[in-house]
Amino acid sequence: MLLCTMVIFSMAPRMSTSFWSAKETNILWRRRETEHLDCGRILRNDKEYINNFIGDKRISIVRNIDYMDMSCSSIQNRIIPFNYHLRPLKVGVVFARVVYKDYEFLEKQVQVSYHPQNNFCFFVDSKSDADFKWRIRRLARCLPNVHVLDEELPIDSAGHNMNLAHYKCMERMVKYPNWGYFILMQNHDVIGKTVYEISRIFELLDGANDIDIDKEFGRIEERFDWDLKTLRLFRDESLYTPEFLNKTLRISKGSVQGSLSREAVEWMVKTVNPRVYLDQWNEGVYGVDEQWISTFQANDFLGMPGHFTDKCLNETGNKTDFISRWSKWSWADEIGEKCGSKFVRHGVCIMGIEELPVIAQMPNIMFNKMMPSFDYAIVDCTAELIFNRTFLGQDDHPLEEDYYLNMVNVIYHKHHMESDYELNCTPGYEIWRNRKYPL
Ligand SMILES: *[C@@H]1O[C@H](CO)[C@@H](O)[C@H](O)[C@H]1NC(C)=O
Ligand SMILES: *[C@@H]1O[C@H](CO)[C@@H](O)[C@H](O)[C@H]1NC(C)=O
Ligand SMILES: *[C@@H]1O[C@H](CO)[C@@H](O)[C@H](O)[C@H]1NC(C)=O
Ligand SMILES: *[C@@H]1O[C@H](CO)[C@@H](O)[C@H](O)[C@H]1NC(C)=O
């Protein structure tokens, strides 16, 4: 790649061990293992070419980072695009991620979304290994907009402490100005849009939250009460009538990942206190982290800024479109037949290199999930795609602005206060879930 070579030359890189390719010192650096990949051919869905990197020929990375130079200057060289100009964003964002492994992958994620107006908040699972903790904490020492909270908590696959971790990031981040949306993420989510695209999406959402709302699964613990009074939800109860505080939350379930407006996050931290609610869920058994933002988003009477309602779920029995996260479930499908990569883990498709065209054309902000130990090529090619769009003006799939503008939650947010407003739960476009997959 000619352009790349030029950039490296002008960066006057300090070479590190031979383990890394020379591109290390450029933000487009690739691992040795993926250096030879032509991501452009993969983006064009050249099946013959893609066949060289799937099945037993997948490029995976198991143990890797021993040689990664963790001095601040090296970290900054890998992340900050010194040689490129970044335009200001209309909407800066917080990427709030609960993490436990794969430092290199996470550093790459910071790199692709790096912008002086964006912030990264990491909450570390206390069970993570010491080397991982050391690296992620170093990252925060070298970049002012990366925050790693001092506190750690044990977080498990049942979701215990997950919500609390995200809440602590909210508490931290409301102290910082200049961001407009807050994205809740988990370790292996991959951002699939540029900083400009994300900013534009949130500009179009214009204050509406983008949260998954689905039926509660019968996980609710009946031994607890879920009324606002018991939950001590509102910080200043004198502002509300006893009848209001006597209302019970209608619990719904949804993905942990989602996007909240800044106003919603400020409200979550300053107007309410969800701690009792979260503590009660933390006593549960499974999927205990999937009822927080979903329930708050659906219970419109709470008045969380940017909220939606559970009327559509009630009326149609279906969830409403949600774009923050792309994922495919493949239950009872041991061989992953429904997954592009033909690989499924705990019911979720793990993405492989053949899915770059999917990532390029879906309207979603993040993709769940990629795992370096399964396929690292997709991680590097996604980063190259975003680099090209950010810095080379590549226009392979212009943002579908009408998609975001016409989302049911966005229209609701814009108009629900108008007297003649009528909720229409049927989107006027084809939702991404119904698009062809795998390609
Ligand atoms: C990125 O841009 C370079 C230079 O134009 C091109 O060779 C490469 O195929 C592009 N990659 C992707 C994933 O679009
Ligand atoms: C609260 O609701 C319960 C039933 O849900 C009712 O029995 C009780 O009278 C209500 N209390 C107030 C103060 O409204
Ligand atoms: C949804 O259905 C539940 C149970 O039938 C009901 O209690 C609730 O009020 C309904 N919500 C809306 C917004 O209509
Ligand atoms: C609910 O979703 C199913 C499956 O996508 C669809 O067939 C059905 O028409 C939807 N129902 C309504 C009322 O939108």
UniProtKB/TrEMBL annotation:
Keywords: Glycoprotein, Glycosyltransferase, Membrane, Signal, Transferase. It is found in: Membrane. GO terms for molecular function: glycosyltransferase activity. One of its GO terms (cellular component) is membrane. Its main location: membrane. It comes from the Eukaryota. Residues 1-18 form the signal peptide. The keyword Transmembrane helix does not apply. This is Uncharacterized protein.
